[in-house]
Amino acid sequence: MSLRFVESSKLPTQWGIFDIHGFEDSENQKEHIVLTLGDVSTGGPVLGRVHSECLTGDALFSMRCDCGPQLQAALQQIAAEGRGALFYLRQEGRGIGLLNKIRAYKLQDGGADTVEANEKLGFHADLRDYSMCKVMCDHLGITQLKLMTNNPRKVNALTEHGIDVVERLPLRIGENPHNARYLATKAGKLGHLFDH
Ligand SMILES: Nc1nc2c(ncn2[C@@H]2O[C@H](COP(=O)(O)OP(=O)(O)OP(=O)(O)O)[C@@H](O)[C@H]2O)c(=O)[nH]1
Description:
Strand content: 25-35%
CATH class: Alpha Beta
CATH superfamily: GTP cyclohydrolase II
Strand order of the largest sheet: 1-2-3-5-4-6-7
Distance between the termini: 35 Å
Mean pLDDT: 96
Number of helices: 7
Bound molecules: guanosine-5'-triphosphate
Shape: globular
CATH topology: Rossmann fold
Number of strands: 7
Radius of gyration: 16 Å
Order of helices and strands: EEEEHHEHHHEHEH
Number of domains: 1
Largest sheet: 7 strands, mixed
Low-confidence stretches: none
């Protein structure tokens, strides 16, 4: 992965003024961002969230998934701690892209679960790559993460890329009748832990 830091600036949000850092992956024509709050380069493990893009959940308030509430909760928890990092990775639909995610939704409307739908479209259930996080951490001086996630495979992937994840913090939020089956499939087939 050829990831290059581009620029940093400020991003005022309803939870405080974050620093926003832009990175470019020219090889894959992707642009990723990291929001940080406080001094993340010194002072021990950083509260972190590695969040994969979900336009429908993050920006359009979709209740088919739990992405939007997780994003909001992560930013709130970072703000409450006064220090942390949100890695916002542009790998929509677990890496299959937005339009294929809509195709997968259509298949789920017809009875497939989220894993079967990906497979019917010819994709693996999860195509995401977390290698860019190591470059981002090195650039930002982050050496250890306390990671907010329900996904142990994400912890393993980051660890394999050389990131020291010292703790996994569950991020169980946003359950509703529209995403009950989706969350059950994540727990049953994708190894997500829905503990508190
Ligand atoms: N292919 C596909 N992607 C989906 C679907 N619903 C949400 N996503 C995508 O899934 C990604 C989020 O992954 P999740 O499996 O929900 O969660 P996670 O990141 O593995 O784990 P957490 O850290 O606990 O949130 C985002 O890129 C969403 O766009 C779906 O039905 N099909």
